[in-house]
Design a protein that fits this description.
mainly alpha; two-stranded antiparallel ribbon; 6 helices
């Protein structure tokens, strides 16, 4: 599985919102600055995350974006699926009828094992876990105004 900038930036946006969970909306400029995400691209990602049901957006001077779900209950696998699509390493796992080799394919079992291992790892990590890693990695550099 190769992670695109969409997946990377989208998860980082969720991590930043997890830092502010329960505090109210966070403006796009703050998220973009703290997570080094270009703001125009961030706005597109926030739309995707809102449509996936992870965040809510509020317009106006006191507006911004906030997580709807507790970051402890939001799995990395859910975020990656919403941002990247299927976690399958190969398309035939998503549509077994799309490949004429499916019944006798010697590689199918390998691809299934890769998909299962990837899903297991991503399921074991929450956005709250990543926010804690982010806090630990940034140490005292993290502050709020």
């Amino acid at each position: 599985m190769k992670i695109s900038m969409k997946g990377d930036y989208g998860v980082r946006a969720l991590v930043e919102l997890a830092h502010h969970f329960g505090e109210g909306p966070v403006q796009s400029a703050v998220i973009a600055n703290r997570q080094s995400i270009p703001e125009p691209y961030l706005d597109q990602l926030l739309t995707s995350l809102r449509r996936a049901g992870f965040i809510r957006s509020v317009r106006g001077p006191q507006g911004g974006h906030a997580l709807i779900r507790d970051p402890h209950d939001l799995r990395l696998s859910e975020a990656m699926t919403a941002l990247e699509g299927s976690l399958s390493p190969i398309a035939c796992l998503d549509d077994p009828n799309g490949c004429h080799r499916t019944p006798s394919c010697c590689l199918r079992g390998v691809w299934e094992e890769i998909e299962q291992a990837t899903t297991k790892i991503l399921d074991s990590i929450t956005i709250a876990d990543l926010a804690e890693r982010d806090r630990a990695g940034n140490g005292a550099a993290r502050y709020a105004i």
